[in-house]
Amino acid sequence: MTEPAPSQDGLKRGLKARHMQMIAIGGSIGTGLFVASGGTIAQAGPGGSLVAYALIGMMVLLLMQSLGEMSARLPVAGSFQTYASVFVNRHFGFAIGWNYWFNWAITVAAELVAAGIIMSYWFPDTPGWIWAGLFLILLTGLNALSAKAFGEGEYWLAAIKVITVVVFLICGVAMIFGILGDSTPGFSNWSDGEAPFVGGWLSIVSVFMIAGFSFQGTELIGVAAGEAENPKRDIPKAIKAIFWRIMLFYIGAIFVIGMLIPYLDPSLLSSEASDITTSPFTLVFERAGVAFAAALMNAVILSAILSAGNSGLYASSRMLYSMALDGKAPKIFARLNKRGVPMPAMLLTASVGLFGFLTAVVGQGSAYTWLLNVSGLSGFIAWIGIAVCHYKFRKAYIASGQDLANLPYKAPLFPLGPVLAFVILIVVIAGQNYQAVLDGNLLQMASSYVGLPIFLLLWLGHWLATRKQPAEVIDPWTAKLN
User: Fold this and answer.
1) Treating both helix axes as pointing N-terminal to C-terminal, what angle do 365-399 and 200-215 enclose, rounded to 10 degrees?
2) Average pLDDT over residues 54-83
3) What pLDDT, on the 0 to 100 scale, is given for residue 1?
4) Which residues cross the membrane (predicted)?
5) What CATH number has the domain spanning 17-463?
C-alpha cells in the first residue's frame, strides 16, 4: 500500500474523496437534528421553524462556499486561522485559532458527558464516567492511528446518521400519504392553534441560534483540506453537495415532523439528548409501527455523539498543530508521530476534554454550563472569521493580478455571500439570549455572551504582546503558509 503524500505543513494526505464527502455530511447531522428539532417546532411552530432552518441553511451554504474557495486554493490544516493571519492580521488569526481550538476541546467534553448518559439507557447501573472514559480512549486511539483512520471512522459513523435520516424521510412521507400508520393528519397540524407561525419573528430569531448550533461542524471540511488526498477535486465536490444535504435532511425532516406531530404536543418540548423517548424521530418511528424505536434512536444518537467527539479531537488537534507551526502556540505541539499525527496537540485536547467531563461529574454544573456557552458562541465567531477572511482573500487574489478562472472553486455569490452571512451571524449572536437582555438578567446575559469578551481579550492580548515585533510578510500564492 502506498504511503499518503505529505502536505505542505508536514501532515499526510490520507483522506480520500468519500471521506471528504462524509465529513461534510456528518458535520451537520447530530443531536441538533435528532432531538432539538422538536423543541424548535414547539417554540416557533412548523412554519416558523422551517423558515428559521431554511435561512440558517442558506447562510451556512454561503459560508461553505467561501471556505471552499479558500481551502481548495490553499489547503492547509490551519484553515481559517491561517487565512485570518495572512489576509486580515496575525492578531485576528491568533484569536480565531485559539477560539476554535477551545470550541472543539469543550465540545469533546460535552459529548463524553452525553455518551455516558446515553449508555445508561442499556446499562442503568454502570456509572456514566466509566463509559465516558472508555469512549475517550477509543476516540483518542482512533485519531492516533492516522488521518485515514479518523476519516474511515467518521465515514461509517456519518453513514449511520445518513441512513437513519433517509429512512425517517421515507417513513414520514409514507405516513403523510396514509401508506403507513393508522391515519394521516394531512395539513391539520399547520393550522392548529397559532400554527404555522407561533410567536412571530422573535420566535424565529430564537430558533436561529438553535439551528446555528445544529449546523456547527460543517466547517470541518476546511480543516480536513490539509490532509485531503486531492483537495482541488474533492473540496468543490463536497461543497456543491452541501446545499442539497441541508435541503433534504434538515428542511425535509422539519417538514415531516411538522406535518405529523402538532406543535402543542408536550413531547416536542424536550431538547435533552438523554430523553430518547421524546425525540421527534422516535415519535414518528413509533407511529409508523417500527419496533424498538427508542432503542434504535438511542443507538443512532450515540453514533452522532461519537462522531462529534471524533471530529472534535481531529479538528482541535490540527488547529493547535497549525498554530504551533505559526508561532501562536508552544512548539511542542508542532511535533508529529511517524504516521503524521500531531500527538502532543491531540493529547492536550483529550486532557481538556477529560477535565471538562470531570468538572461536570463532580457537580460543578454551573461552571460547566458557562464553558459550554463559551464554546457554543465560539462556533459562531469562527464562522464570522470565515466570512471576513473570504472577503479579504478575494480582494488579495485580484490585487495580486491572478485570474479568477484559475481558482479550483469559485464562490458564485461574492461579495454578497460573505457579506450576507456576516450580517445574519451578527443577528444570531445578538439574539442568542435576547430574553435575558429584555428582562435585565445580568447573570444570564453574562453566561450567554461571555465568549465575545474572551475572543476580544485574545485579540487584544496578542496585539499587546507582539505589537513591537515586525509582522512577517507572506506571499500566500507562492509561499508555504505554515
Assistant:
1) 80
2) 89
3) 41
4) 22-41, 47-64, 100-123, 129-146, 158-180, 200-221, 242-264, 284-309, 345-364, 370-391, 412-430, 442-460
5) 1.20.1740.10
- Sign for the CA dihedral angle at 264, 270, 275, 276 comes to positive
What is the 3-class SS of the chain, one letter each residue? CCCCCECCCCCECCECHHHHHHHHHHCCCCHHHHCHHHHHHHHHHHHHHHHHHHHHHHHHHHHHHHHHHHHHHCCCCCHHHHHHHHHCCHHHHHHHHHHHHHHHHHHHHHHHHHHHHHHCCCCCCCCHHHHHHHHHHHHHHHHHHCHHHHHHHHHHHHHHHHHHHHHHHHHHHHHHCCCCCCCCCCCHHHCCCCCCCCCHHHHHHHHHHHHHHHHCCCCHHHHHHHHECCHHHHHHHHHHHHHHHHHHHHHHHHHHHHHHCCCCCHHHHCCCCCCHHHCHHHHHHHHCCCCCHHHHHHHHHHHHHHHHHHHHHHHHHHHHHHHHHCCCCCHHHHCCCCCCCCHHHHHHHHHHHHHHHHHHHCCCHHHHHHHHHHHHHHHHHHHHHHHHHHHHHHHHHHHCCCCHHHCCCCCCCCCHHHHHHHHHHHHHHHCCCHHHHHHCCHHHHHHHHCHHHHHHHHHHHHHHHHCCCCCCCCCCCCCCCC
What is the per-residue pLDDT across 131-186, written as a single tens digit (0 to 9) for each? Answer: 888 888 999 998 888 888 888 888 898 889 888 888 999 998 988 888 877 777 77
Instruction: Report the alpha-carbon distance of residue 85 to residue 96 in Å, rounded.
Output: 9
Residue 90 is placed in which grid cell? 496575525
Q: Which three cell numbers stand for residue 335?
A: 511535533
**Of 330 and 275, which is predicted with more confidence?**
330
Domain spans of the chain?
17-463
CA pair distance 228, 374, nearest whole angstrom: 30
Q: What's the chain's Rg over C-alpha atoms?
A: 22
CB atoms inside a 10 Å sphere around CB 347: 15
Phi-psi region of 409 (alpha: psi -120 to 50; beta: other; left: phi over 0): beta
Instruction: Give the residue from 17, 22, 39, 479 showing the smallest Cα distance to 218.
Output: 22
- At residue 369, the pLDDT reads 62
For residues 442 and 446, what is the distance between their CA atoms, to the nearest angstrom? 6
As a whole number of angstroms, the distance between CA 194 and CA 347 comes to 51
Q: Determine the Cα–Cα distance for residues 202 and 208; give it in Å rounded to an integer.
A: 10
Residue 6, φ and ψ in degrees, nearest 5 = -75, 150
What does the alpha-carbon distance between residue 116 and residue 221 come to, in Å, rounded to a whole number? 28
